[in-house]
Write a structure and sequence with these properties.
Strand content: 5-15%
Helix content: 25-40%
CATH class of the largest domain: Alpha Beta
Number of helices: 22
Structural class: alpha/beta
CATH topology of the largest domain: Rossmann fold
Mean pLDDT: 86
Distance between the termini: 59 Å
Low-confidence stretches: 1-72, 77-100
CATH superfamily of the largest domain: HUPs
Largest sheet: 5 strands, parallel
Number of strands: 9
CATH architecture of the largest domain: 3-Layer(aba) Sandwich
Radius of gyration: 27 Å
Shape: globular
């Protein structure tokens, strides 16, 4: 290093094409007047090495503190970071937004998947930045759709409506969205060849089957000398970016969260400025998209629900939640009140950027925002677990719990699925799922605990049912949530902690407002008894218009006895 007031950052000219040497004198700058920042973009193609420097001014720090850092965000890498008393110098592989370098590809293809938006989109930004003409495509993938048992699937309709909006917006820009129906493994390479694309751009998808699909598509493209570039987009930190001190994946959430929060900064939360590059969209004639019916699906009740679709719907919900986030921590556990964000489906299908959500929560501050940010971090924790421990898809994270002696009573499972267990809050939660495709997070825990620890039914049965019905279904989050509730997972609740469905009801729906919404049989049941209506006398039951066992089912299990059986089941598995 040089002396306290001189710093040199040198890179070999043959590697990066530049040599920088920056000398800083003893600057006297008021902290309120920052030096101009050369904005760093993230449009760095892996074949092109460019380096530039950002200088940040500081005041009041001890002179002589020096250090070098190294970090990466997507394809933008901090290759040098030096701090002295008055300044921090950060050098990136990258280029300023006003770069006039020539385009790498005359034509390219941007493949949309779970990222159905035009703003803050990593793959689209890179494609536009590196290409003279970018075509856009979405595939209704029959490799996925054909396996869906219900042809009135709300998720398919949500995707269709979101794709329709994306299609309209692209045509307003003079381009279009090629909407195809068939196997993505075949159609994407075929379209890329037909368009004479030099590359296909897409964002990372972390689920095992998606990884296999992308590897197959990349190999097919390579046969025609077409490159495939994929980027981080649906997470802030990928599976290997947050590791413990030994370079291993975390096994407990709180240390992972602390490391996540320590690492995150504006560098990782900055949006990709797609809007600055839209002139590179390929000019196309308007095109059509297949209808739900043409793809073998039927419309659902989605239009009757308070869930607007597409980019505009996500924006509307996010704007509303920003006004309520301050109370999130206090209201999120009560299903009868408007306490949660209702953005989970939009986040699942990428109609809104994770960076926009995390950036807002990180900077707005307060307990509500911090609690919500923790939920976003849980999402990435579960994705990390799935990546490093793929066996959790079909097995318990903790191998000893594969030995649990589940009873797996099919009749009781059917009662749980249909919301006929005799426990009002459990039934209300299951009926909400069946009627809307949404289930409040508190109720996901309550219903999952009831299935596994009151009915002693394998968590995989419940996980599959949720996978078929949840609008926001995500493999890693669904798997992680079920293994948490069943106490078979990583950093799960202890197996001896068993939710009491009655006390959960009394605590989180005290007036029975949510129960009455989804279990109308109990509409006239007094608040005092609505959580355990079987405790009403026969005369009181007749008076309020519900006879247990006839108008509403009696409890299918005695919670106290079930608890004893479950504790014994876990003791045997851990012996």
């Amino acid at each position: 290093m040089q002396d306290e007031t001189t710093v040199g950052l040198n890179w070999a000219a043959e590697m990066h094409g530049h040599v920088f040497q920056l000398r800083l004198g003893e600057w006297h700058v008021d902290l309120r007047e920052q030096l101009a920042q050369i904005e760093a973009d993230r449009a760095v193609h892996h074949d092109t090495h460019r380096t530039f420097v950002i200088v940040f001014a500081h005041i009041g720090e001890r002179f002589g503190e020096e250090g070098i850092g190294h970090r990466r965000h997507g394809d933008q890498e901090v290759v040098g970071e030096v701090h002295t008393g008055h300044a921090a110098i950060v050098a990136f592989h990258g280029s300023p937004h006003n770069s006039t370098m020539s385009k790498t590809y005359p034509v390219s293809l941007c493949w949309f998947r779970r990222d159905l938006r035009l703003h803050d989109h990593a793959a689209l930004f890179h494609a536009l930045k590196e290409s003279a003409a970018v075509h856009c495509v979405f595939v209704f993938d029959t490799d996925i759709l054909d396996a869906l048992p219900n042809k009135a699937d709300r998720r398919v309709e949500f995707i269709w409506r979101s794709v329709q909006e994306l299609h309209v917006e692209l045509e307003k820009l003079g381009s279009t969205l090629h909407v195809l129906h068939g196997s993505a493994r075949k159609l994407v390479p075929q379209l890329a060849k037909r368009l004479k694309a030099g590359a296909v751009f897409c964002n990372h998808d972390y689920e095992p089957e998606a990884i296999q699909r992308d590897a197959f598509v990349a190999s097919e493209l390579a046969k025609s000398d077409i490159e495939m570039h994929d980027y981080k987009d649906q997470v802030i930190f990928e599976c290997d970016e947050i590791l413990n001190g030994s370079g291993k994946p975390f096994a407990v959430f709180t240390p992972y969260k602390n490391a996540w929060l320590k690492k995150v900064d504006d560098f990782y939360l900055r949006a990709y400025p797609v809007e600055t590059q839209l002139e590179a969209l390929a000019k196309c004639q308007p095109s059509s998209l297949p209808s739900l019916e043409e793809m073998g699906f039927k419309p659902t009740n989605l239009s009757e629900m308070a869930l607007p679709c597409g980019m505009s719907g996500a924006s509307k919900l996010f704007e509303d939640f920003q006004q309520r986030i301050g109370e999130y921590h206090a209201r999120r556990d009560f299903p009868a009140v408007k306490g949660v964000s209702y953005l989970s489906t939009h986040l699942r299908f990428g109609t809104i950027s994770i960076r926009a959500l995390a950036n807002f929560a990180h900077h707005v501050g307060g307990q509500g925002a911090q609690t919500w940010l923790s939920e976003l971090i849980w999402r990435e924790f579960y994705q990390m677990l799935l990546h490093h421990h793929p066996h959790v898809v079909n097995h318990a994270y903790k191998p000893q719990f594969d030995r649990l002696g589940w009873l797996n009573d099919k009749d009781k499972f059917a009662s749980w699925c249909e919301g006929r267990t005799g426990y009002p809050l459990v039934d209300a939660g299951m009926r909400q799922l069946n009627q809307t495709g949404f289930m409040h997070n508190r109720l996901r825990m309550v219903t999952a605990s009831f299935l596994t620890k009151d009915l002693q039914i394998d968590w995989r049965w419940g996980e599959r049912y949720f996978a078929e019905h949840l609008l926001d279904y995500d493999l890693s989050a669904n798997n992680g949530g079920w293994q948490w509730s069943a106490s078979t997972g990583c950093d799960a609740q202890p197996w001896f902690r068993i939710f009491n469905p009655v006390t959960q009801s009394e605590r989180f729906d005290p007036a029975g407002k949510f129960i009455r919404r989804y279990v109308p049989e109990l509409e006239n049941c007094p608040d005092k008894f609505i959580h355990a209506p079987w405790t009403l006398s026969r005369g009181e039951q007749e008076k309020c218009g519900v006879v247990i066992g006839r108008g509403y089912p009696a409890p299918i299990v005695d919670h106290a006895l079930a608890r004893v059986k479950t504790l014994e089941m876990f003791k045997q598995a851990t012996a």
